[in-house]
Amino acid sequence: MDNTPDNYEPPHRPTWDEYFLMLAKLAATRSTCLAFPVGAVITKNRQVLATGYNGSPSG
Hints:
By secondary structure, the chain is of the alpha+beta class. It has a domain at 16-53. 22% of the residues lie in helices and 22% in strands. It has one helix spanning 16-28; strands spanning 39-44, 47-53. The longest helix is centred in the middle third of the chain and has 13 residues, at 16-28. It is elongated, with a radius of gyration of 18 Å. The model has no long low-confidence stretch (mean pLDDT 93).
């Protein structure tokens, strides 16, 4: 017996590019630069190698 409603749609599963871009946006929230927060994700073969974010300019 299937209890799934007829109008059920599974949630959107992001593509790999969308997924990694979301990670970069999340990394940017750690930035200490208020003017231009930037996040970065380095990947290879769909595996995250590193993440990073920018900081405030010195001075």
